[in-house]
Amino acid sequence: MHIDMNDNPRNEYFLNGRVLNESCSETDLGVIMNDTLKWDLNINKCIKDANRTIAWISRNVISKSIDVMLSIYKALVRPKLEYCVQLWCPAARHGNWATILELEGVQRRFTRLINGIGTLPYSERLDRLQLTTLAERRIRGDLIETFKIL
């Protein structure tokens, strides 16, 4: 993969006399990175995996009580949305709001499945479950990582 920054030359690399193929994206430790250093592919993969898990849960879990669903969410869905989030976190700026809202929509969708609170507004559902928005969790995670470095 060639990252075009600071007039980086496009060299050809060889292994055993054969030219190595150039790719536009790579996956390392489950995180997809492309040659423009944008994380759209990775974010879309996270959202897709989390939505697939939510669909599986809605089909297979019989008891949708608050305790059961909250445990399932914390164990199966949220880790898919927060894996290496300090690396690919979408910045809160013009052009990224759709991505941020799409990520938040996954948690919004899951909280609708819970018996007794599914019809409440999103903010009230979060209060009842004692959860924060995913954006707040990402900011908190960034602060914790910064504190560890200092």
General description of the model:
With 150 residues, this protein is mainly alpha-helical. The chain contains 6 helices and 4 strands; from the N terminus they run E-E-E-E-H-H-H-H-H-H. A two-stranded antiparallel sheet has the order 1-2. Strands 3-4 form a two-stranded antiparallel ribbon. Strand 1 and strand 2 (18-19) form a beta hairpin. Helix 1 (40-60) runs parallel beside helix 4 (97-112). The longest helix has 21 residues, at 40-60.
What's the gist of this structure?
With 150 residues, the chain is mainly alpha-helical. It has six helices and four strands, in the order ββββαααααα.
Q: Say how many strands there are.
A: 4
Distance between the termini: 33 Å
Low-confidence stretches: none
- Assess the beta-strand content as a share of residues: 5-15%
Count of individual helical segments: 6
Q: Helix proportion of residues, in percent? A: 40-55%
Question: Which terms would index this structure?
Answer:
single chain; 150 residues; mainly alpha; two-stranded antiparallel sheet; 6 helices; 4 strands
What's the layout of helices and strands?
Blueprint: E1 14-15, E2 18-19, E3 25-28, E4 31-34, H1 40-60, H2 66-82, H3 85-88, H4 97-112, H5 122-129, H6 134-149
Antiparallel strand pairs: 1-2, 3-4
Helix pairs in contact: 1-2, 1-4, 2-4
